[in-house]
């Protein structure tokens, strides 16, 4: 049982490190638009039915919001991005 719990903890730590790395890469590449790009990727995954990728990119967006003082997070812009991604799949 303890081995299973330790394995789960290590897996969660690895996921967090990956999320932080993805957030840093987007921030370096996009700076102000990093949050929007992560949300765009999350929306694409949701529309494609890829639940695991959706949660990954939604978590990356949250990490960007947490660590980047320059990331823009306008809900109207985000709604337009989500609408555009959903129309893209129609």
- How many angstroms does the end-to-end distance come to? 46 Å
SSE string: HHHH
What's the mean pLDDT score? 93
The helix/strand class is mainly alpha
What does it look like?
The protein has 90 residues and is mainly α. The protein has 4 helices and no strands. α1 crosses α3, α2 (34-48) runs antiparallel to α3 and α2 runs parallel beside α4. The longest helix has 29 residues, at 2-30. The protein is flat and about 45 Å long. The mean pLDDT is 93. The chain starts with a helix and ends with a helix.
Key terms:
0% strand, 90 residues, mainly alpha, single chain
Give a short summary of the structure.
84% of the residues lie in helices and 0% in strands. The chain has 90 residues and is mainly alpha-helical.
Detail the topology: elements first, then pairings.
Elements: H1 2-30, H2 34-48, H3 51-67, H4 75-89
Helix pairs in contact: 1-2, 1-3, 2-3, 2-4
């Amino acid at each position: 049982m303890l081995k299973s719990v330790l394995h789960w903890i290590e897996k969660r730590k690895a996921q967090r490190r990956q999320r932080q790395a993805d957030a840093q890469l987007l921030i370096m590449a996009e700076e102000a638009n990093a949050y929007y790009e992560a949300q765009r990727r999350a929306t694409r995954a949701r529309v494609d039915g890829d639940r695991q990728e959706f949660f990954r990119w939604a978590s990356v967006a949250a990490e960007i919001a947490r660590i980047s003082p320059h990331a823009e997070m306008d809900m109207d812009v985000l709604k337009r991005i989500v609408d555009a991604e959903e129309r893209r799949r129609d």
